């Protein structure tokens, strides 16, 4: 089965639409959503409704920290993110907020694990930005492949049976074989707010039979997404950063 895995959509309708279109064109058979459906972007209602439809059709979805913040004042954000979350609270209806609240922190599916941040303490929202942090996540699960987001920058880590770690930044559209003798942690880029210098929306495709992962990019209408942010009175930096991929 070919999985299309998305993370950190952040209310960006234009980016999510582009990723769904490209994934379907490439033959995706099932969708996995790694959280942060809301925050930053100006179309949280559409994104959450689309996620709800996909889940009803069999997609897997987990909760992100921005999703949790919509219904919990205990989650702390930087000033601009907090403004966006408070604005988002006023846009979502009861069913949409319930959907976000009831999402699991992680999902295990055979030899795969799906989580927003990382597997050792998913509720603490730790970032995986080094081999040390990746090792903590990998040690916490027997899964062959763990998929996570949260960082907004693509990366791929692996751990051997002797706990030797490797890491690299995968190239776009170049399949990588995830060998069975190692554990793997696939850190996704962001659909709605990439931070690796490339403004194109990011997602991955994973072939469950061949164990090949491909990091993909989808160009989208950045100007419209940014305009929606400005028109709704959200901080302009949230719009400006989209064209810079940061």
UniProtKB/TrEMBL annotation:
Q: What cellular-component terms does GO give this entry?
A: cytoplasm
The record's listing under InterPro entries reads: Ap4A_hydrolase, Calcineurin-like_PHP_lpxH, Metallo-depent_PP-like, Pesterase_MJ0912
The superkingdom of the source organism is: Bacteria
User: Residue limits of the Calcineurin-like phosphoesterase domain?
Assistant: 1-209
Molecular function per GO: phosphatase activity
UniProt lists the family membership as follows: Belongs to the metallophosphoesterase superfamily. YfcE family.
Give the protein name, as stated in the record.
Metallophosphoesterase
Q: Which organism is it from?
A: Bradyrhizobium frederickii
């Amino acid at each position: 089965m070919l999985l299309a895995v998305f993370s950190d959509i952040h209310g960006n309708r234009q980016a999510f639409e582009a990723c769904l279109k490209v994934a379907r064109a490439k033959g995706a058979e099932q969708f996995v959503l790694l959280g942060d459906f809301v925050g930053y972007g100006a179309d949280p209602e559409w994104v959450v409704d689309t996620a709800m439809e996909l889940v009803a059709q069999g997609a897997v979805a987990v909760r992100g920290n921005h999703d949790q913040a919509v219904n919990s004042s205990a989650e702390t954000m930087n000033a601009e993110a907090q403004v966006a979350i408070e604005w988002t609270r006023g846009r979502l209806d009861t069913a949409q907020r319930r959907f976000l609240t009831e999402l699991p922190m992680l999902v295990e599916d055979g030899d795969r694990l799906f989580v927003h941040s990382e597997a050792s303490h998913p509720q603490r929202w730790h970032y995986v930005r080094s081999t040390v942090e990746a090792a903590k996540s990998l040690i916490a699960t027997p899964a062959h492949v763990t998929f996570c987001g949260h960082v907004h920058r693509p990366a791929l880590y692996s751990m051997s049976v002797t706990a030797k770690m490797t890491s690299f930044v995968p190239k776009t559209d170049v399949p990588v074989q995830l060998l069975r003798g190692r554990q793997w942690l696939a850190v996704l880029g962001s659909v709605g707010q990439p931070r690796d210098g490339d403004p194109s929306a990011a997602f991955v495709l994973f072939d469950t039979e061949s164990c090949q992962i491909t990091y993909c990019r989808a160009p989208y209408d950045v100007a419209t997404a940014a305009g929606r942010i400005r028109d709704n009175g959200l901080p302009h930096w949230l719009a400006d950063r989209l064209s810079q991929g940061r």
